[in-house]
Amino acid sequence: MDQQIESNTLGMWVFLVTEVMFFSGLFLLYIIYRAAYYQEFAEASHHLDIYLGTTNTVVLLCSSLSMALAVRSVQLGQRKAAVGLLLVTLVLGTTFLGIKGFEYFHKYEEHLIPGSGFIYEGEANPHFAQLFFVLYFVMTGFHALHMIIGAGVIIYFMVRIWQGAFPPENYVPVEMLGLYWHFVDIVWVFLFPLLYLIGRH
């Protein structure tokens, strides 16, 4: 059992390292293009809703807290509390996705979805403004996909914990779920200033 736990833990850390490398590559690509087309990217970023972005940041930070408390509840054998806290985490994660979906829809209404229907009326070169939104949708889209996967896994763990799985001596799988969720939250902590804050003065 201990060997299996160690193997699963190592597997999760390897997975997280590959995810860090993936998102780091996206961040680096964005930073390079932002440096090359600073004025265009700065102007295009003003079309993002900083209030929705800030709200989503607070929502995810709260979800990290509820996830940490859920893991602690499993360690203490508090099954009902763990399920309740995972439910809170799920609701917060769903709230984040709902806000992000609303933000996407607003970009659709403004014709800022990259492609043939893209219309940009600012002073910046529309091709470089469109590049900003390509990177915006790619980075936030992959992040949202990771959120959806995490939400699905949370539902699975809620059911299993309610059924009596994962007693205090076998809390590691829940801890791995917590690590994944915290990682997804940290990705957003980097995305938020990169996309919403830099160059807004």
Describe, in plain words, how this protein is organized in 3D.
- The chain is mainly α.
- The protein is about 80% helix and about 0% strand.
- It is built from six helices and no strands.
- The longest helix is centred in the last third of the chain and has 37 residues, at about 125-160.
- The mean pLDDT is about 95.
Task: Give the topology.
Elements: H1 2-36, H2 38-45, H3 50-75, H4 79-109, H5 126-162, H6 172-197
Structural key phrases:
single chain; 201 residues; mainly alpha; Four Helix Bundle (Hemerythrin (Met), subunit A)
Quick gist of this model?
This protein is mainly alpha-helical and 201 residues long. It has helices at 2-36, 38-45, 50-75, 79-109, 126-162, 172-197.
